[in-house]
Amino acid sequence: MTSEVATGGCQCGRIRYSVAIEDDDTYLCHCRMCERAGGGVSLAFKNVALAAVTWTTREPDEYRSSPIAQRGFRRECGTPLTFSFSDDEATDMDLTVGSFDEPGRFRPTHHFGMESRHEAWLDTTGLPGIRSEDNASTRDRWMKTVGKLPD
């Protein structure tokens, strides 16, 4: 795959980025810090070169999540956006897959932080699924408030 530009941003749209990517490879991080930072059982990341990222609106807010790393996020809407090491040797960073405009294009290639992985959450293909529009409570609230379901 040749390099192409992908775009993304936070939920409220005030932080936007573009990034040159070489492939669609991503990974799932199961470490406890990522679980807590994302509020889930793992975080999906796309590793990219720092120099390949352009913040097209404004840069994300940051917090030092450990003695060796920081995370970028949007303070007002709470969207987790980045993970990067804080040392001067860092040449790359991770962007959260969910923050990309087209997250469905990516495919996971490995797991990280296996010491904290929750096995029961890895293969959920056998669980029943409910579409948003099939849940009357959710659907009716969207229709009453906005007049349509979200994208």
Structural notes for this entry:
With 151 residues, this protein is mainly β. Helices cover 11% and strands 36% of the residues. It has a seven-stranded mixed beta sheet. A three-stranded antiparallel beta sheet has the order 1-2-5, with no helix packed on it. A hairpin with a 6-residue loop joins strand 8 (80-85) and strand 9 (92-96). The chain is globular, with a radius of gyration of 17 Å. It starts with a strand and ends in a 6-residue tail after the last helix.
Keywords:
seven-stranded mixed sheet, 11% helix, 36% strand, three-stranded antiparallel sheet
How is the secondary structure organized here?
Elements: E1 4-9, E2 16-21, E3 25-29, H1 32-38, E4 43-49, E5 53-55, E6 61-66, E7 69-73, E8 80-85, E9 92-96, E10 107-112, H2 136-145
Parallel strand pairs: 3-10
Antiparallel strand pairs: 1-2, 2-5, 3-4, 4-9, 6-7, 7-8, 8-9
Which radius of gyration do the C-alpha atoms yield? Answer: 17 Å
Query: Unreliable stretches, pLDDT < 50, 5 or more residues?
Result: none
Helical residue percent band: 10-25%
- Helix-strand makeup class: mainly beta
Provide a short characterization of the protein structure.
This protein is mainly β and 151 residues long. The protein has two helices and ten strands; from the N terminus they run βββαβββββββα.
